[in-house]
Amino acid sequence: MPKTVIFDFDGTIADSIPSNAVILKVFNQIAGENNFKNITMEEIENLRNVGLYESIKLLKIPVLKLPFLARRVRKVLKVDETVVEPIKNMPQVLNSLKKQGVSLGILTSNKKQTVEKFLKKHELEVFDFIHSQTNLFGKDKSLKSLLKKHKLDKNMVIYVGDEIRDIQATKKTGISMIAVTWGYNNKKGLEKFDPEFLAERPMQLKTILEKFFA
User: In a 3-state reduction of DSSP, which class is residue 135?
Assistant: First the structure.
């Protein structure tokens, strides 16, 4: 039975995923700077249905350009400033789990200080650890690094994330996973990759986790 819940941060805890309209504007601005193909609103919606590799094919972006593109998108969006509020009802879920004695952790590509600042602002300092590591194509490597650093048994861990690559990473790592539909990838896209559990609302997530700890 899992004893530790590891959460993704952006889109899972923090309501920091831009709207389709904002993504369209930002991507096409950067596309113009780098001679990439502009995209349409319909293509943006399609990206919510697919994983990272398929997204790259649809966008026709050179793989070597991805790290630069990720940094540029963050700079244009000023992500650190736009992470304003937690996902509705997530504070209740997190505080409830903590009261039950569950160990809580975060895996993020954000700077650790950024996450700490957010948690302090919203009185969510309930996490036992924050693991900051960037692996655009290898989130499974970040998970393995986290397990090793914090001496966690993968059979005693469950991961909560909002992206298809979260599902892929946990399958590679052998960790149980709950996919949530309120982040980047939508329900249709997540279901294609057969997550072990799927939650459409934070309170549904709470119910699934409580069954694990019953």
Answer: coil
Structure tokens at 158: 């469950």
Domain 4-16+86-212 has CATH 3.40.50.1000: yes
Say if residue 42's pLDDT is above 50: yes
Residue found under tokens 């569950």: 102
pTM of the predicted model as reported, rounded to 2 decimal places: 0.87
Q: How confident is the model at residue 172 (pLDDT cuts 50, 70, 90)?
A: very high
The residues, any chain, with a CB within 8 Å of residue 25's CB and separated by 6 or more, are: none
The full length of the chain comes to 214
What the block records as the tokens of 206 is 């709470």
Average pLDDT over residues 180-196: 94
Task: Identify the pLDDT of residue 24.
Answer: 84
Number of H helices, E strands in the chain: 11, 6
Cα–Cα distance measured from residue 84 to residue 104, given in angstroms and rounded to the nearest whole number? 21
Question: Can you give the residue ranges of every domain in the chain?
Answer: 4-16+86-212, 20-82
pLDDT, tens digit, 9 for 90 and up, residues 8-23: 999 999 998 878 888 8
Please report the pLDDT score of residue 1 as a whole number: 45
Question: Helices marked H in 48-149 — which ranges?
Answer: 52-59, 66-77, 79-82, 90-99, 112-121, 139-149
H or E, element range at 106: strand 103-108
H or E stretch at 205: helix 202-212
